[in-house]
Fold this sequence. Notes:
mainly alpha; Serine Threonine Protein Phosphatase 5, Tetratricopeptide repeat
Amino acid sequence: MPGIFKLFLLLLLFGVFIPATKGQLLNDKPTQNLISTGINHIYNNEFAAATAVSQQLQSRYPNHPVNYIVKAFAMYWQYLPIQDNKAKVGEYVRTLNQCLIAVEKQYGKNSKDPEAIFFTLAARGYLALMYNYQNELMKAAGEAQKTYGTLTEGLKLTDKNSEFYFTTGMYNYYVEQYPEDHPIIKPIMFFFKNGNKPLGLRQLDIATRMGSITKVEATFYLAHIYLEHEGRPDLAVKYTSQLEDSFPRNTIFKMIHTEALLLSGKYADAEKLIPELRRRNDDFYPIAWHFFEGYLLEKKDRDYAKAQDEYLAALKIPHDEQYTREYHAMAYAGLARIADRNNNQVSAKEYYRKCLAIAQYVNLEKEATAYMK
């Protein structure tokens, strides 16, 4: 999942507004509340209700860039994963480009108006995400570099607006973490201000409690950080449970909550959620519930033969880069553990090699690397 590139779109999209600006929309509290309502509908997969909110927004601010940003956000969640959706990805990119055109029409070319800057950051942030998920890391980093100057202004405003705890926390954490994950971009990161990962974690936690519109994103990303980078699924559960409780119709949130429960050893709680996940036979969801079933069978029931079948079933389905890549990696690790139990160290090492080829979670990498020594 992305880190630093998401910052740029979130500066506007989730209501991180610089105080005391002159922009009309940025000072329109009812419109900010309307945007928040629409976004919450999108999070909970209530797309018809979100469309109704978008129509109200369009009537208040016709042809305004905000309409294209909200539309792009809705597409992002409705057609997961958008970068792999051949039927919708073209429309998605066109919507982002329409936003940039609308910015220029609304504010003029290269405008320094705060609203113009925010909407430009939002649109370019989504484009950066596309590059990131398509593994075009240099292009993604290039987009980040273009908007760096504006982003750093937001870093100065944390004490003035609690919404900035999210963007500042994300920056402090990922500006250090992202180059560790993707060494190819280290030369570009030379131009970025240093971060502080422990401080970033504290700021993100504050955002989950004090943020208004940024609360959901802060909660989601903090959970992911504890799962992937910090190796603390026990801490991730605190945040994934909040997402599951607040947005019960969001299958992605249910999926990551189930994962956190399993990896932290809360098998009984995870087992209650899997039947609902199993009803999703579309897209990549079967990868998740096949892996979850296999993990339960291996760790809780000690039924290694059935666990192996579930892991293999998960691996038969192509994974996406954003949400289910790690479930393939964990399935390979599960097969490696089972092979080792059967005294088949050759197969175990082969499965761990496949795991390491795609794994991003620190705990998984440690497990596979230790066995390969």
